[in-house]
Amino acid sequence: MADVLRYVFVHLPGEQEAVPAGVLTLTEEGRETLASRFVYGRNYLTRHGRIPVDPKSLALDSNARRAEITPANGLALFGALRDATPDLWGRRVIENKLRAPPDSLPESVYLDHAGDNRAGALDVRVARDSPSAPGVLPGSFDLEHLVQAADRIAEGEPVPTHLEMIFLGAPGLGGARPKAALRDDGRQWVAKFPARQDGFNVPMIERASLELARQAGIQVPRTRHIRLGDGRDVMLIERFDRGEEAAGYPRTHMVSALTMLGLHEHDRSAGYADLCRVIEQFGVSGHVQADRTELYRRMVFNILVTNDDDHLRNHAFLYDATGGGWRLSPLYDVVPRPMLGTDRYLAIGVGAQGRLATLDNALSQCEQFGLSKPEAAAIIDSVVTAARPWRNAFESLGVPAQECDRVAPAFRRAADIGMGKVEAAARS
Ligand SMILES: Nc1ncnc2c1ncn2[C@@H]1O[C@H](COP(=O)(O)OP(=O)(O)OP(=O)(O)O)[C@@H](O)[C@H]1O
Ligand SMILES: [Mg+2]
Predict the structure, then answer these.
(1) Any residues with CB less than 8 A from the CB of 413 and at least 6 apart, and which?
(2) Are residues 288 and 414 in the same domain?
(3) 36 in ligand 1 pocket by Cβ < 6 Å?
(4) Nearest to 259 by CA among 303, 318, 299
(5) Number of structural domains, the chain?
(6) Does 92 lie in the same domain as 230?
(7) Percentage of the chain surpassing pLDDT 70?
C-alpha cells in the first residue's frame, strides 16, 4: 500500500495559466485505489473567481478549509478526478503508449497520462512546479492516421511511430468507443470512429440521431460527418468544454451527472428526477426551469429512439462562471439501439414505473421536472412529431437506406408506448 501525491490545477475562466487548487493523495495498492483525500491550498480558497474542483465532494463552503476532505458517500476517488481520468478507451491508449497490458496500471498513472486534452478544466501534475503537458492537438487532416492508430490500439498492437499523434489527443477523453480530440476550423472537436464489432454504421447513425434531437428542440453541439479514403465514416462533435482557438481554447469545467450525485459507477438507483434535484441544488438561478425542461425533452427523445445507454456519465454539467452554478451540458452520445422486445428500459429511472421506456411513464412524474401534465404532454407531442420522420431526416444527411433499415427497430411508434394516455392528460 502506498500514498501517491498529486497537485490538482484548475484553468479558471479568464486566466491564461492553470492555477494550483490543492493536493490530492491517493492510497493505492497495486492497480486498486483504496482511498483518496484532498486539501485545498490556502491561496486558492481566497482567490478571486475560484471554482470548486468537485461540486459534490469539494464544495467551496466552510468544509473546504478542513485539512483533509474525503469523497462523498465513501467513494474511493473524487468524481471530478475520475471524470478527468480516461475511461475504457483512453486507458487502452495510455497502455498502448506505455506498452502495458489492459487495466494493469494504478489510477495515478492514468491520471498522469490523460494530458492536456482531458475533459473539463482540471489538470493534474506531479509537482507544484511541473510544467503543464504540451497542449498540441492533431488536426482534421490527420484523421486517416488517427483512425489507423485507433485500429491498432483496439487490436492491442503497438502504434507505429508515424501514427503516434493519437497519443496527443486521445488519452484524455472518456467513454468506451474509439475516439480522439482534434482541432479544425478554429475549434476543438471529439472525433468518434467506427469499431470492428459495430452492427451498423455507428458514426453516421450517431450523427443523424444528434441532428434529429436538434429538430426536437434539444441543445446539440455542431456535428460533422467525414468519409475516409477507405470508405469508413467518422463523426465529429464540437467540444463544449473548450472555447475558440482565437481565445486560446479557454476551458469550461465539466463534471458528469455521476459526480454531481456522488454515486458509485454501478449504482442503479438514480433517475432523471434525481438530475432535476441536481439542477435545483447546483443550477443557475433563472435557468433552473429551462434545464429541467431540456432534461425532460432528452428523456422523451431517448425513449422514442431506444437510446438505452443514457447512463450517468452520458449526462454532464458545465460550470457557468457568470451565473456561479452548473448548467446541463449540451447533448452527446446518443445512439439508437435496434431491438425486438416491446418492454424496453432506459439506463436510469424515468417515472413511477422505474426505468420503463414508455411515454406514459415519462408523464407520470413530470411535476418533478417543474412541468404540469398538459405542459409535459405538449413537450412529448413536440418530440414525437420531430422524431416521426426520422428516416427522411437520416436519408437527407446521407445515411444509406440499408443503414436506416438496420436501426429501424430502435424507433418506436408513439401509439405503442402510451401516447393515448398522454393525449388524454393533455385534454384534462
Ligand atoms: N461534444 C463534447 N464536448 C466535450 N466533451 C465531450 C463531448 N462529447 C463527449 N464528451 C466527453 O467525452 C466522453 C466520451 O464521449 P462519448 O460519451 O460520446 O463516448 P462513448 O465512447 O460513446 O461513451 P460510452 O462509453 O458511454 O458509450 C463523454 O463522457 C464526455 O465526458
Ligand atoms: Mg458515453
Answers:
(1) none
(2) yes
(3) no
(4) 318
(5) 3
(6) no
(7) 100
Mean pLDDT of all residues in 249-256: 97
| Chain Cα centroid distance, residue 41 | 28
d(CA 96, CA 303) in angstroms, rounded, equals 37
E runs forming strands in 126-232: 179-184, 187-192, 223-227
Q: Is the CB of 241 under 6 A from ligand 1?
A: yes
Tell the residue number behind the cell numbers 490545477, with chain if given: 9
Q: 338 and 379: one domain?
A: yes
Report if residue 130 sits inside a domain: no
**What phi, psi does 148 have (nearest 5°)?**
-60, -40
Looking at the structure, tell me whether residues 171 and 228 fall in a common domain: yes
135 within some domain: no
Q: What's the pTM value of the predicted model, to 2 decimals?
A: 0.97
Please tell me the total number of residues recorded for the chain in this structure: 428
- To the nearest 10 degrees (0 to 180), the angle between helices 288-305 and 272-282 is 160
Q: What is the pLDDT of residues 41-86, one digit of tens each?
A: 999 999 999 999 999 999 999 889 888 999 999 999 999 999 999 9
Ligand 1 mutation target, pool 314, 317, 327, 348, most atoms within 8 A of CB = 314
What digits encode the pLDDT tens for the residues 163-215? 999 999 888 899 999 999 999 999 999 999 999 999 999 999 999 999 999 99
State which residues form the domain around 38.
2-125
* CA-based nearest residue to 241, from 154, 127, 348, 320: 320
Place of cell 412524474: 365
Decide: helix, strand or coil at residue 7.
strand
- Edge-to-edge strand ranges of the sheet holding 19-29: 32-40, 19-29, 2-10, 122-125
pLDDT of 258: 97
Number of separate helices (H) and strands (E) present in the chain: 15, 11
Residue 50 domain flag: yes
Question: Roughly what angle, to the nearest 10 degrees, separates helices 373-387 and 202-215?
Answer: 130
**How far apart are alpha carbons 131 and 110 in whole angstroms?**
18
Ligand 1 close to Cβ of residue 159 (< 6 A)? no
User: pLDDT by residue (tens digit) across 257-279?
Assistant: 999 999 998 888 999 999 999 99
Cα–Cα distance list, 221 to 13, 175, 203 (Å)? 21, 18, 15
Ligand 1 proximity of 237 Cβ (cutoff 6 Å): yes
pLDDT at 427 over 90: no
Same domain? For 284 and 416 the reply is: yes
Asked if residue 17 lies in contact with residue 223, where contact means CB atoms within 8 angstroms, the answer is: no
